[in-house]
Each structure stands twice: as C-alpha cells, then as structure tokens.
Amino acid sequence: MKKYILIPLLLLAFTIKVQAQDDAIQRFFSKYMEDDRFSRVYISPKMMQMAGGFLKSNAGTDKDSEDLGELIQKVKGIRILSSDEVDGMTFYREAMGTLTKNKYEDLMIVEDKGSSLKFMVREEGGLVKELMMISGEAGDFTLLSMLGSFTYEDLNMLAEKTDIPGMDLYGKGSKGVK
C-alpha cells in the first residue's frame, strides 16, 4: 500500500521540480517588470506567426523570404529585459544564479574587464527550445530569452537575416553546426 502512495508522490515532486526550473527565468522577469529602471519587451507567439505569415505570403519567388517566414513562425516568443541604469554585473550574477545550470548548455562566453556576455541553449529531443543571452557590465544589463523549436542552422539564419535583438551578437560567434 505504501508503494502505491509513494509512486504518485514522487511523480508529483518531480513535476513540481521541473516546473520550478522552467519558471526560474519567468520569476526573474516578473521580479523586475514594474521596475522603471528596466525596459521590458515581450513578443508573443501570435505576433511571430503574423510576421512569418506576412513574409511567406509576400515572398513571391524569393525563396529566402519564404524560408525566413517559415523560420520566424518557429519562434514561440521573445522576452527581453534591459537597463542602462543599473550595475549590470550585479544583475548578471543574479540572473546566472537563478538558472538551473544543468538545464542550459553554454554556446558562447565573452568576458572582459568588468563585462560578461553568455549565450546558452536549452535542448530537448535534439532541438533548441530556448536561446538565452545574458550580458552585464557597468551601467548595462540585458537578458533575452527566445523560445521555439530550432536547429542550429535555424539560429544561424536568424542571426544572419533578421534584426531580432541580440542575434547580431550571436552572429559574431561560431557559425558552425553543433
């Protein structure tokens, strides 16, 4: 009898732990949503679908525009939190402390005197489900989270052919397929 009660409790505990990990970045965003020192941007999945659909429908014979339209529709949302009024390294360390380290894999790290920039990905089933960029330096902090279902080729194309915030920095890193 105790086994039958223990199994559902273990499953519930595992589910709660997974949800807590998924919500860590959301909690970080929520913590500073009302802070006037920060600019906050959220681009919904519906907006990405609309933009991708617009590109695809207006592509005509332009294969690149059609491909880019399909790719943009894979983006399930973008959240950006940034400020040029805070000690960015303090917020960088706080954001990094919020992350579940074993859930994200480092793609690129750039550290210089008083500044840090990190790109990380969260993969599931061989696809990138989240691209995260965190940067901090004196007087500047940015956190970008882009959700979707991408290959590394998709991310390279987004970096090369769009003006999605943060992707210009991603594009300066390695273009190789992982």
From TrEMBL:
InterPro entries: DUF4252 (IPR025348). Pfam families: DUF4252 (PF14060). This is DUF4252 domain-containing protein. Keywords: Signal. Residues 1-20 form the signal peptide.
